[in-house]
Amino acid sequence: MNDLTNKSWLNWFRLASPSAFYPVAGRLIPFFWILSIAFGLAGLWVSFFVAPVDAVQGQGYRIIFVHVPVSWMSMFLYIVMAGWAGIGLVFNTRLSAMMAQAIAPIGAVMAFLSLWTGAFWGKPMWGAWWVWDARLTSELILFFLYLGFIALQASIDQVRRADKAGAILALVGVVNVPIIYFSVKWWNTLHQGASVSMSKAPSMAQTMLWGMLLMALCFWMYAIAVTLMRVRVIILERETHTDWVKQLEEVRS
Amino acid sequence: MNAFFMIVQRDLLLVMRRKSEVLTALFFFVIVTSLFPLGIGADTALLRKIAPGVIWVSALLATLLGLQRLFGSDYQDGTLEQLALSPRPFVVLVLGKITAHWLVCGLPLLILAPVIGLQFDLDTASLKTLLLTLLLGTPVLSLIGSIGAALTLGLRGGGALMSLLVLPLYIPVLIFGAGAVYAKSVGLDVTGHFSLLGALLVLALAFMPWVSAAALRIAIE
Amino acid sequence: MTAHISHPPFSAQSFQAKNLTCVRGDQTLFASLSFALTSGECLHVRGENGVGKTSLLRLLAGLSQPEQGEVIWNASNIKSDREAFHQALCFLGHRDALKEDLSALENLMMYATLGASNSSRESALQCLWQFGLRGREDLPVHYLSAGQKKRVVIARIAMRGAPLWILDEPFNALDSQGVQGFIGLVEQHLSRGGIAVLTGHQELSITGLRALQL
Fold this sequence. Notes:
The complex is a heterotrimer.
Chain A: H1 18-50, H2 64-91, H3 94-126, H4 134-155, H5 159-190, H6 206-238, H7 243-247, H8 249-252
Helix pairs in contact in A: 1-6, 2-3, 2-5, 2-6, 3-4, 3-5, 3-6, 4-5
Chain B: H1 2-17, H2 19-40, H3 44-77, H4 79-84, H5 90-119, H6 124-151, H7 158-185, H8 191-219
Helix pairs in contact in B: 1-5, 2-3, 2-5, 3-5, 3-6, 3-7, 5-6, 5-8, 6-7, 6-8, 7-8
Chain C: E1 14-24, E2 27-38, E3 42-46, H1 53-61, E4 68-73, E5 76-77, H2 82-88, E6 89-92, H3 104-114, H4 121-130, H5 146-160, E7 164-167, H6 176-191, E8 195-199, E9 209-213
Parallel strand pairs in C: 3-8, 3-9, 6-7, 7-8
Antiparallel strand pairs in C: 1-2, 1-4, 4-5
Helix pairs in contact in C: 3-4, 3-5, 4-5
């Protein structure tokens, strides 16, 4: 779960109401943007200047400093999204469902970036824009799971039904992701076609790991910042009829 | 259990009175499998190699076609509400409907598949394996598919949306099912595939009816 | 068309709504709605179209969840003992809930099994005959007229013999004779100690009737 839950002086239940959460989220957003930019600059510096040139793959391998972190984030965000959706389903809290709805497109973008950077890595390295290896294929399926969640919520007009149906789908998905990953790995080893694999990363120099970790943190802070921004918009959309929204400066102007 | 058998019998009776719906999915299965040789060429060796995948994918798509009917008719005439309000456990009734769906959609595939397999020149051992994988796998397809059907009940564009939701979840069954037939055809051991398929079936039977029942209650709110 | 279906009288029942609030989309249809019914009472929910009558009935039946408040059957929340509540409830929604491809008799037998009551084929036939469907029991329901379909639905309700009836627009498609017959059925149900909640635009003269205007 994101950093919000660690601040012990904030009364957790008070924040469960959209009207209380809205201003708090607003104050936190710049904080996470700053963290994201800071980590990003550090990560990019490490990945471009500190990490050594790979003996086999030359300079082009540096795209893993984006590819691997976004892959991690796409999987992490799916679990977080399913977690929020599950909480919303069990405790019938609207804000949790709004968080899940906010995270979904960001996770989908991360998954897409993973596939895209994977292609950019594959082409110069192995001559093919796409390789049916276990991780890329699982990433593709994860992308479809995100799209399914977004499409389902978009198709249901009644908001509470959309929340709950999406929650069930996300929970079923989160249980299936390990099963799918395992089956795809199995499939990959069975059909020994291409002998190339994205999983066989270049033997990790310590600096390379640092680079990826910093970039991962950068994307994580970015994801939190954008999620908070999106959830504020969703709150406004859903609560337009309430008094506190009508009082807001942004709405009155 | 009385209620379970009543629901299975009722759904089968309803299908018998509207036979055209059943046959459409079956014809679809046959037509789609015939498209592949037409698209790829009649090279026997190649067809033998792609047969497990082609037959399994066509089985997936044919099951998807049948899924749209699973809860749709009961939802439209109001019977689904009555099922939800029955003193009988809703999960049992849902399982009854899924069972009836498998009897109508999955079982005929089992009967047709060897015929298609012969068209693709599969040998006897592979055909037997194909039948067994379909026997284990088609119930899983019905069970997983029921969640997609329940979630998209009554929505515009329900069919296409349901396919988007359900097909990623079908992938493990496809991999183990088609993989087993392919492995058999090249002489590899298939016990691993079958244990995994069996495990999927057990998991699906244990959880999917509850999830579908929950999704249905949400849909009829 | 009065029915002579024999069911034993019910023990004392109570049906309560406490502080029900219903929200549909952006609109609050009603808030803090409460009532209490005991054996022999019938609640007639009135109001214009779209005011929330159907939503209220669905809340009372437990099909949808209220934003706030609870529904209580015999001193326990309907969510806490679902099976007991469903055993006691007979719900009629907007649609007839009849399978069009099955015959009237087959539909009633299906509901007998679903309702966990031990109705035999003979008693189902008796029900259908008492509502003027003799000779039509074996026809697929889609051959029946709208009025006849409604009589099948009423036969289902009568056969079930549940203590709590929640009926949404039960008089639709009935002619005046049918309406009178159905009112007689409701009165018989109330005199046996049952409870009923129904909607309808008609003026009803039933003993033990209370009105709720939404």
